[in-house]
Amino acid sequence: MQFSLFQPKHRHSNPGDPAKADQIRSALGPRLPQAAVENVVAQILENPISIKVVSHRISKSGDFRPAFNNNPPKITINANLNLFGFLITLVHELAHHHVHLDFNRSLKKFTLRRKKRPLPHGEEWKEQFRLLMVPYLNNEVFPRDILPVLMQYLENPKASSSVDHKLSKALKIYDPSDTTVRLEDLPFDAIFTIHGKRIFRKKEKIKTRYRCECMKTSRIYLVSPGAPVAPFPDKI
């Protein structure tokens, strides 16, 4: 599913455009907490961007790509996220969009000092993320068991909410029931599958991810600690 709110010939969208607002509500409304929809609509209309909901990816929940070669800026978000995880991921990526726009605007201002490009998850992104999350930090949007954990996470947000154990665990409660566990909950050298397809062996942790060996190809993958995996019943 994809919709675009970016029109190359008209770079300044009308924030009050009812057609675009309805388009956002129709596409994203069912994937968001109801109380968050109107604020999401306003934030997207403020800085138009293409948004695409995609199949589940192991390595990430969402990403942002700036405009390139006449293609509009784009955000992709995993379809399997629950309402609260989807909202957090969307705002996370919108924060990247805002930082990128602010940096580009700063380049147009005359200065003798060379401007450094902001780090992907540096202070500029953290500040934007916090600001964009403010309208949602209430009990009408988030359940009482998620809200305090989320507010603590926002004090120093990480590159992914799945890296924060407390927030990831609080969000998982609202996932549809399944038989998976978090990768970090498996012991070292455990055998597991991802989506019932390839079989892996868990290895040591490197910084924020675990090395995992594909049993068929011996290829090494770096997998997020919060990735949902199914323990494999037989030793290999």
The major sheet is characterized as:
6 strands, antiparallel
Number of domains: 2
Strand content: 15-25%
Q: Give the SSE string.
A: EHHEEEHHHHEEEEEE
Q: What's the tally of helices? A: 6
Strands, helices and their partners?
Blueprint: E1 2-3, H1 18-28, H2 37-46, E2 50-54, E3 62-65, E4 74-78, H3 83-107, H4 123-133, H5 147-153, H6 165-172, E5 181-182, E6 191-193, E7 199-206, E8 209-214, E9 220-223, E10 228-231
Parallel strand pairs: 2-4
Antiparallel strand pairs: 1-2, 3-4, 5-10, 6-7, 6-10, 7-8, 8-9
Helix pairs in contact: 1-2, 3-4
What characteristics describe this protein?
236 residues, alpha+beta, 6 helices, 31% helix, globular
Describe the fold and architecture.
By secondary structure, the chain is α+β, with helices and mostly antiparallel strands. The protein has two domains: 2-172, no CATH class; 181-231, Roll (SH3 type barrels), CATH 2.30.30. It is built from six helices and ten strands; from the N terminus they run βααβββααααββββββ. The protein has helices at 18-28, 37-46, 83-107, 123-133, 147-153, 165-172, and strands at residues 2-3, 50-54, 62-65, 74-78, 181-182, 191-193, 199-206, 209-214, 220-223, 228-231. It has a six-stranded antiparallel sheet with strand order 5-10-6-7-8-9, with no helix packed on it. It has a four-stranded mixed sheet with strand order 1-2-4-3, with helices on one face. The termini are far apart.
